[in-house]
Amino acid sequence: MSIVKRATTHPSLAVNVGRGALAGVAGSVVMTAFQKFVEMPISQREDSYGPAELAQKLLPVKPSTEAGKKRLNYAAHTALGAMWGAAYGVAAHKGLRGLRGAAATFGAIYTQDLVMITALGLGKPWTWSRKDATIDVLDKAVVIAATGAIFDRFLGPNARS
Fold first, then answer.
1. Distance between CA atoms of residues 59 and 55, nearest Å
2. From CA 88, how far away is CA 17, in angstroms rounded?
3. DSSP secondary structure code for residue 154 in this structure
4. Average pLDDT estimate for 14-21
5. CB 16, CB 131: distance < 8 Å
6. In 3D, which of 127, 130, 100, 98 has the Cα closest to residue 114?
């Protein structure tokens, strides 16, 4: 039995969404580590505050210090990971797991991400350089791949013990 106790063989949609959100939080930690230790040293880019900017646009929060902005950024980053994970939980509930589940989730969520960035005036993805677009896709592919692997291995109904 996996680390999550199971009441039924086929968990409800709500259970899968919750498990997906948990996997998404873990996936966002994996993505952060990938960014800090692999992608950013190679790309030479600075930290992105996109998640904090999104939170400030949607919520009545305005950090007054740089440390506050960094905390908000990590909180928003983690919340976005949980939402991506919840979407993976829905896909898994419908029978899409592994590469198929990750691809379906990535396609739906990444499209929504680009639409939201544009609609909220946070960016114009069509103006991004090839390098910036590649980094964005790669980082988000890492989070969904990690989320799916964590869900399927540790949290899904057929997780191996």
1. 6
2. 8
3. I
4. 96
5. no
6. 127
pLDDT score of 161 more than 80: no
Q: Which amino acid is at 8?
A: T
Give the residue among 158, 108, 149 at the shortest CA–CA distance from 23.
149
pLDDT class for 89, splitting at 50, 70, 90? Answer: very high
**Pick from 48, 54, 158, 152: which is nearest to 105 by CA?**
152
- Identity at 54, one-letter amino acid code: L
- Give the burial class of 64: count Cβ atoms within 10 A of its Cβ; 0-12 exposed, 13-18 middle, 19 or more buried: exposed
Report whether pLDDT(44) > 70: yes
The domain locations on the chain are 13-155
- Ramachandran angles phi, psi of 115, nearest 5°: -65, -45
* Among candidate residues 132, 133, 150, 120, the one with its CA nearest the CA of residue 31: 150
DSSP-H helix ranges across 5-157:
13-34, 40-43, 50-58, 66-93, 98-119, 130-150
d(C-alpha 127, C-alpha 40), whole Å: 21
